[in-house]
TrEMBL record, chains A, B:
Pfam families: LacI (PF00356), Peripla_BP_3 (PF13377). The keyword tRNA-binding does not apply. Transmembrane segments: none annotated. The lineage of its organism: Bacteria, Pseudomonadati, Pseudomonadota, Alphaproteobacteria, Hyphomicrobiales. This is DNA-binding LacI/PurR family transcriptional regulator. GO terms for molecular function: DNA binding. It comes from Neorhizobium huautlense.
Length: 333, 333
DNA sequence: ACGGATGTTGCACTCGCTTGCAAAAAGAGG
DNA sequence: CCTCTTTTTGCAAGCGAGTGCAACATCCGT
């Protein structure tokens, strides 16, 4: 359809009166070219608007410079900020992010990875969904690096970045106790993502540890609207919880808003809330939510670092600790 | 560094006992292959885990399937949702998004476009910043399609998608008047993006049209925190405005929160607010902001459509009308 | 059985680039 | 000035695919 007419190394070579190899070497760091030749090549390249064809280069070098980002619900604040951080770090490492949206189904993560293979991506970073083992094996076998973020299922040869969700949950529990709360609840989505379940599990475990009952309610996706529903369910119980740990900040925002506007409860006086992620909105004055900060930048850094390291068969676990950011949604602090 | 060992068409051919061309044809829609050959090829491909190398294919076809998305502050709600919509539409058109972050400087948009050329992207979509004319010319000359969203400066050969910002601003003004407001203000960022300036201009023009003064205040980036500052400046004036049109929703959120919490003003009783973008947060019950909805999905659709159309030299303007979404931040409605 | 139409297949060239190798040029040392 | 070493340079062979062309096979009608 389109007539793309990019200028090629041959044309630059002709104009500069040198061989095609000379042009190639000029644009290959560390190759042997005399200063004079380089000058003439660069001049010709500039005049013609030449840019090395990375596709062809990747073909030869067997290294495309492309890294595949596999994400669903990428407009969600936490995801968006992670994408941003990763893309920044990738660019610093002279790589470039290919974005693949997997909103449709779970199978589409597999499709995405196949696409990554087709484009000979140097690596894939999975932010959501969990790929089939057969596919990840194919990736690793093909020499493609694989990073799984917050997926928590083992895959040979991959880097798995996870947070200490359970410990964080315990910490939240203790914070609630210090604030004098008596009735504890966990507000979760019902998608069952491992990291969300780990938070739930950790919170319940803390309840058992301290001999306190914990109510668990699950509903919908990890979005604001689910938080609304969760609030309605939790706050209409005969013993109304006065401490709710939300699986993530979006839920917490929906829950807080509903608690305040629909149930006329004061946060933190009548109800303490803790969230997870530390999305930007939690710092807005309508929320001032106490929450656990995902170390987004460090996650991105770690992921990108892994891409440039020699491949190991075993894979690697990387666990990070989320920091508890104290704001106003829990008494005391 | 990494030893990538992808399986090639040659290996598949060998295993299936056919020529390499047969393999190629099997994966080329519309090519002539017998059912039997196709079957054997597909079988061998499956067994070996073969996937066509899109880079090599792109090299031959002179069509990479890559589309470059050039964005800054991509974790901002509006940007994120636009990115999501575009990536979805691209995937439907069997293309794939390369994400380039231009947070650093304005010059980096040019760098990004050069990168796009290097990767022989079929097109580039610019969501932020404005590239040099020389660079866009190079893109168009190279046969690369170019889409500029909300940029509002003319570039030959490109598709320029814009909203009717001025008309929207006028509509906001009228809504304020209907609500009985008496003192009007426009809260803007000071980055001077054309679309933001158009909204300001449209609002001021409406003021002149109706013979009413309009206060304009500009500060910072188009973010929540700037909204806070703008509120502090606007709401401490001797004649306090009771109608504020914000250049975008993030500003509006910051401004509303500050008006309520710091100045103890009731929205919409003491102060009416209108925003722009219709980001998700505006529907949260803490805000219920009346705002103009960017037709994100239609923008994405239009952009992607353009990519598959034959190239014209002239370029094309596409103006869309944002819908006013009535919520609770303006009386009446 | 034969001529012709139709459908498949493989050869070989091409896309734009990198790189090993050997020839040519430049520099060093006597 | 000649020889030996070090750069620099061009040639040509890839990388993994697509495709025009000609050869071949298949099938049909007569």
């Amino acid at each position: 359809m389109s007539q793309k007419i990019f200028v090629s190394a041959k044309e630059v070579a002709d104009r500069a009166g040198v061989s095609r190899s000379a042009v190639s070497r000029t644009f290959t760091p560390g190759a042997s070219v005399s200063a004079e030749t380089r000058r003439r090549v660069l001049e010709a390249a500039e005049a013609l608007g030449y840019h090395v064809n990375h596709l062809a280069r990747g073909l030869m070098r067997n290294e495309s410079g492309l890294v595949c980002l596999i994400v669903s619900e990428m407009d969600t604040p936490y995801r968006a900020s992670l994408i941003r951080a990763i893309s920044r770090h990738l660019q610093n490492a002279s790589k470039i992010a290919m974005l693949i949206n997997t909103d449709r189904s779970d199978r589409s993560v597999d499709e995405a990875l196949k696409l990554a293979i087709s484009y000979r991506a140097d690596a894939s970073i999975v932010l959501s969904g969990m790929p089939e083992k057969s596919i990840t094996d194919l990736c690793v076998k093909s020499g493609q690096r694989l990073v799984l973020i917050n997926r928590d299922e083992e895959r040979a040869g991959a880097l798995m970045i996870n947070l200490r969700d359970q410990e964080a949950a315990r910490q939240a529990f203790i914070a609630f106790q210090r604030a004098g709360c008596r009735s504890f609840a966990f507000a979760n989505s019902d998608v069952g993502t491992p990291s969300l379940m780990a938070r739930e599990e950790g919170f319940c475990a803390a309840g058992r540890e301290f001999g306190v009952d914990v109510i668990v309610e699950r509903f919908g996706a990890t979005r604001y609207q689910s938080g609304v529903v969760l609030a309605q369910r939790l706050l209409t119980r005969e013993v109304r919880p006065d401490a709710i740990f939300c699986a993530n900040d979006l839920l917490a925002c929906g829950l807080m808003d509903t608690a305040r506007h629909q149930f006329k409860l004061a946060v933190p006086d009548d109800l303490c809330v803790v969230g997870f992620d530390d999305i930007e909105q939690t710092s807005w004055s309508s929320y001032q939510l106490t929450t656990f900060a995902q170390p987004v930048d460090r996650i991105a850094e770690e992921a990108v670092l892994w891409l440039s390291q020699p491949m190991t068969d075993s894979g690697r676990f990387c666990r990070m600790t989320p920091d508890l950011v104290w704001r106003e949604s829990v008494r005391g602090g």
